[in-house]
Task: structure prediction
Amino acid sequence: MFAQLAPSPSPSPANLSHFVNRRSFRKSTVAVSASLPTANSARPPIQVFGGKDLNSNVTKKDGSVGFKLEANEDEIDWMNLESDIRLWTRALRPVQWYPGHIMKTEKELREQLKLMDVVIEVRDARIPLSTTHPKMDAWLGNRKRILVLNREDMISNDDRNDWARYFAKQGIKVIFTNGKLGMGAMKLGRLARSLAGDVNGKRREKGLLPRSVRAGIIGYPNVGKSSLINRLLKRKICAAAPRPGVTREMKWVKLGKDLDLLDSPGMLPMRIDDQAAAIKLAICDDIGEKAYDFTDVAGILVQMLARIPEVGAKALYNRYKIQLDGGCGKKFVKTLGLNLFGGDSHQAAFRILTDFRKGKFGYISLERPPL
Result:
């Protein structure tokens, strides 16, 4: 079944846990500062520091009205797009992935968390909301945390500033990193040590000898945890590859004499109820390939890109020489398969997803901060 664009129903706040705001696309950058929360806050916030209607009606041959995706304006209603993504996913096979190694290590990770002085939570900068584990707050409690948005090279400066501003309103500053090139890694190491600096002070007060600060790096699969550790150590200690599920066991490594780091497997909820988030995980390669149908996911990606002004239907045509007929992304994928891959839609879908993951469409964020 094609994932065909349809009119957006009135969104229900209860169903839009990740809805995002309308934002003008501008060229200027904004410096962001954050004030730390007060000690009287009802809920201790994460401690994080550092860091860089487009539809037009189309009458079909049978007289029915469809929709043509045109990205020819300067802004987009992200709340409506999020609602449409949920609508598009209803007809698709649910995206679910919970391999045995995650089930096996989740209990062990919760035990290891009790030993940690600082927890470094890594998310994908393209989808910071969708790479947030629903149980993270319950697991960590009041423990000191550092929030890292990795792959900063894959989003624009405007997106980066918008997310920094969003977290600043919560008393949070965020570290943006690039695990491949190492940007932000040194700042992350310094911050981990500084947040846990009072550990040995308290130990001395109790007459205990000093010890290394223990920091755990956790997050969804393939968000760049192992690459960050390798950058911190300046050598390849942890296995890292551009696919989910490479790290299957927890591993402690030493960073100098005063910091121990725990590399952990990517953690996912046993069941992903938010299928809009699940589709974005698949698009960004943050979930196993067996969890989804490539043609379905690429079709939705095409429909999303056509709605994002930085890309639009024109950019899709310029790259693949195919018109987005009637706004149907899956039909676009099938046509590309016929034109380039002898009718193989799977290969066509893989090409589109790979192009997005390699930044061939530019600096693209698939989420915006909530209102």
Notes: The chain is about 35% helix and 15% strand.
